Amino acid sequence: MTLPTLPDTLREQHSGKGWPLALVGSLLLLISGLLSWSFDPSILGDISIAFWPASLQLFAMILGAVGVLLALMHRGPLHRLGDWFDTALGLRALGTGSLLFVVFSLVAIATEAGGLVNVNPGGWLALAGALLLTVGARFVPQRQLNSFAKAKANPVLEIVVIVLGMAAILFGAAYVLGRDDPWIFVGFLVMAAVAFMALARAGFFTWMSHVAQRHRHVLTLAAFVVAFLFPFTQDGSDANMSIATQVLIFAATAIGLNIVVGLAGLLDLGYIAFLGSGAYVGAMMSNAASATIGWKPPFIVVMLIGACVAATLGLIIGSPTLRVSGDYLAIVTLAFGEIFRLSMFNLDGNNGPDLTNGPNGIPGIPDLNLFGFDFGKPHTVFGIQLGRFSNYYFILLLLIGFIILVFTRLNNSRIGRGWVAIREDERAAEAMGVNTFGLKLLGFAVGAFLAGLAGTIKAHQDTAASPDQYIFLESAFLLAAVVLGGMGTVAGVLIGATILKLLPEKLRFFSEYRLLLFGLLLVIMMRVRPEGLIASKRRQLEFHEDDEELAQEVQADHLIDAAPEAAR
User: Fold this and answer.
1) Cα gap 394→385, rounded to integer Å
2) Are 275 and 458 in contact (CB under 8 A)?
3) Among 35, 76, 258, 427, whose Cα sits 20 to 30 Å from the Cα of 231?
4) pLDDT score recorded for residue 565
């Protein structure tokens, strides 16, 4: 655990002053949200009204509330919690991040209203509070912490925390997707990133990982309830639901890639081809006027055919190429992705069989109709109208549930342990009797199968299938989602896929600078948290080898996982 660069002697001399300054700064930041921040009521969601916080005012209050909580946990009514959470590191991260957020807010006001002269006292009070919090947090001393592994569980409290956390995610997602002002959207992202980093440095998410292990079924149920309720928060809007369906398709494909990259450790740069093969099967066997296959089986059969075609392609590409590894495997899979795209161009009846209509693709794919339910028509549920994209959202949610079930079952099985052994040391695994080639081939086939399932739904949701949809950049985004979220985990990949699919859509106002910001985000993440947003404990140990407590937890989890196998 590395301390900031302040000399230890200076920190010890002023340790008594640090906590009051941090608490006062957090209170000022909290109070500033109740004051007016600008004279102009037409900008940033009207932050000119006192005692009626909106947008930036509300964000500042959230950061202030987090600061007050951490300060009272360090010394105050909640001081017993400070024995478990590193409040000093949390306050330092919060102080620096809050100062960054307030400076961003003042720049936003000056840009929109025409100068800093239009900043009201609330904005300046927030700046003063952030400065006090930043300075005070630097002198807050760290404490000796207890291990979460030895903590007594309070099931009721832990379940309440899970429910509150899921509710916060639901309302936060509904709020941010409803913002059209780019300043407010970016301000929310900055606030959320600062709060996340502060709580992470304090150890809150380490504790949450223990809670999740103890209440895995409750967490899973709460997550799916939140996902199910999300369309009811959009007031019938198809704009945000269109993004949500794209996120789910992207996430389903990324989880399949996670088997190949996250578990087996195989670098695949052409994975988008498996999604494309499923989409083309769904398009060619649809009722579109340009469909090239006359057989129109039920959609469930089409899904299985598309998934099997994708899995077959996985076996075809895997059989000759999986005998190489590392950079060579990446180059071969990259070539496969390009071969697939060019093949779709050439299967036009002139250069090959008439299957894909070449560069024109297969347009006009009709909406799904399952058991009399038309996915193209809006439906009213509980008095709330759900549009076309909401219908596809629900079926994709079921697909995600199935894919997560497959992934977790495989991950916790002997096959999953074989994949992890190959990822850690292929030669050692082979020496211990692991069928490395067979397991790698199985990983390619299963991952491709799951991507093909998502592709068949994507064709109907997009109403078209064309080669330009399946370019190398999409494969790169899929791989980035797995690495950014956390290789080998489900929750991490879901969060990574959401970030990488949502941000480009909501940051369109930055035009050509979107990719620059995306690259900057990845660089920062690899520097600050190289194991990913939600990393498996094994990968955390790889990046934090000096953490003895984490090593003990990984060893204990390994013994727990191995016990049923030993009993058999």
Assistant:
1) 14
2) yes
3) 258
4) 42
Exposure b/e, 3-42, CB count within 10 A at least 16 = b: eeeeeeeebeebeeebbebbbbbbbbbbbbbebbbbebee
- The two tokens of residue 410 are 């495989």
For the stretch 179-234, pLDDT in tens is: 778 888 889 989 998 998 899 889 888 888 778 778 888 888 888 888 888 888 88
The string of DSSP codes covering 387-449 is -HHHHHHHHHHHHHHHHHHHHHHHHTSHHHHHHHHHHH-HHHHHHTT--HHHHHHHHHHHHHH
CA geometry: angle 79, 83, 84, nearest 5 deg: 115
DSSP state of 145: P
Tokens of 429: 């695994």
Phi–psi pair at 313, nearest 5 degrees: -60, -35
Distances (CA, A) of 379 to 42, 165, 227, 472, 543: 36, 30, 18, 37, 49
Burial of 195 (0-12, 13-18, 19+ CB in 10 A): buried
CA angle 387, 226, 405 (to 5 degrees): 100
Instruction: Indicate the pTM of the whole model.
Output: 0.82
| Helix 272-284 × helix 238-258 angle, to 10° | 120
**Tokens 């920062």 belong to which residue?**
524
Tokens of 193: 């990133």
Q: What is the DSSP string of 150-171?
A: GPPP-HHHHHHHHHHHHHHHHH
Strand partners, 38: 119
- Give the pLDDT score at 70: 93
β-strands 373-374, 379-381 pairing = unpaired
Angle at 502 (CA atoms; ends 497, 505), nearest 5 degrees: 140
| Residue 228: both structure tokens together | 């199910």
- Cα–Cα dist 3/5, whole Å: 6
Question: How many angstroms separate the most distant Cα atoms in the chain?
Answer: 82
Please state, in angstroms and rounded to a whole number, the distance separating the CA atoms of residues 368 and 286: 9
Q: Which of 474, 464, 81 is nearest to 282 (CA)?
A: 464
Local structure of 377: helix, strand or coil: coil
Tokens standing for residue 439:
């397991």
Neighbours of 536 (CB within 10 A): 22
- Per the CB < 8 A criterion, the answer to whether 311 and 449 are in contact is yes
Number of H helices, E strands in the chain: 22, 6
**Which H or E run includes 374?**
strand 373-374
The CA distance from 415 to 524, in Å, is 34
How far apart are the C-alpha atoms of 440 and 466, rounded to whole Å? 30
Beta strands (DSSP E) in 460-556 are 464-465
The pLDDT of residue 102 is 95
Tokens standing for residue 17: 């002053």
Rounded-to-integer distance, Cα 422 and Cα 427, Å: 8
